[in-house]
């Protein structure tokens, strides 16, 4: 996951993965026959991480607003990494879409569907879907700017503003 995030799908080779794992290159082929197999494993790992993060947020926070703010806090907690390499999820989805990989949408859809449910639970039934899209889009847009300008403070400040907006709902 880290290599694909830092180097991108196209630039990461099986040899790079073997080197990072401290194994002979031939050993990688035992687990991954093709780059698509690696991508599949990375998607599966991201799906697991998203589900685990959302489950932890659900378990630790009682109100929908607190859960939404916890998600933003969680995402913004990666501000240093995002400033260096871009959003792990957003970057992967962008690259996967260039390969016409339909599973890219599933990763973002999982976040937006969860956020939509939080907005519904908070009493915003008619515009819950739009609010969820705007929340994730705001984060991803700020992540892009933080990466482009190499400034993690952009993401940190955006998280504060998004949290304030959630408080006002």
Describe this structure in words.
By secondary structure, this protein is mainly alpha-helical. It contains 10 helices and no strands. Helix 5 (64-76) runs antiparallel to helix 10 (152-167). The longest helix has 26 residues, at 35-60. The chain is elongated. The N and C termini lie far apart (36 Å). 31% of the residues are buried.
Protein traits:
0% strand; elongated; 10 helices; single chain; 169 residues; 79% helix; mainly alpha
Ordered list of secondary-structure elements with their pairings:
Elements: H1 2-7, H2 14-21, H3 25-31, H4 35-60, H5 64-76, H6 79-85, H7 88-98, H8 103-121, H9 128-148, H10 152-167
Tell me the helix content.
Answer: over 70%
- Stretches where pLDDT is under 50 for at least 5 consecutive residues are none
**Helix and strand run:** HHHHHHHHHH
Please outline the major beta sheet. Answer: none
Approximate strand percentage: under 5%
How far apart, in Å, are the first and last alpha carbons? 36 Å
The chain-level mean pLDDT equals 92
**What's the helix count?**
10
Shape: elongated
Rg calculated over all Cα atoms? 17 Å
What structural class do the secondary elements suggest?
A: mainly alpha
Strand tally: 0
Can you describe this structure in just a few lines?
The protein has 169 residues and is an all-alpha fold.
